[in-house]
Structure formats: structure tokens, C-alpha cells
Amino acid sequence: MSWYWIVPLIIIAVLVIIFVVNQVVSAHLKQAATGKEELYGKKALVKTPLNPEGKVLYDGEIWAAHIENGSAEVGQEVVIVRLEGLKLYVKMERSE
Question: d(Cα 11, Cα 91) in Å, to the nearest integer?
Fold first, then answer.
């Protein structure tokens, strides 16, 4: 085999190794998003009026919800502040 084949193959192999190592390191450094901690601060869409109880849609799932301040109409976005059992406690999203 000549150097015209060996050098490009070595370069390609090194680039592939660097890419794989980079992906593995970034996967390990990324914060795991599981459990109820994942919900805090996320936005949910109001499906039935929250006055103060109702239903919201988060990540394709309908949740029972309780709004902590005021009320919310269908279609508005709310922010999840805590989870107790299977009920989300939400507040109105601040508009800036």
C-alpha cells in the first residue's frame, strides 16, 4: 500500500475518533432531565379554564392544574411552579 492511501485513511480514522469522543463527553456533561424537577419552569397550555382548578396540556399530556394567582382562559400559557401528586401548580406567564 502506498502513502497516498495510508495518510488519508489515518486522517479519516482520527477524525471519526475525535467526533465519537466529543459526542460521548457532551452526553455525559448534559444534565439529565427526568422526574418532577424537569417540569419546574416549563410552560403548559390551558385546556379548560383555570379558576382556580382546571386542565392544562404539557408535553402532549393533559394534567389537572391549580393556578396560584388569578385565573387563566383556554389557550393561554402558564408556567409550572410545583407538582403535588398528579396535580400541577401553575402561575400566569409574565409578559414583558
Answer: 55
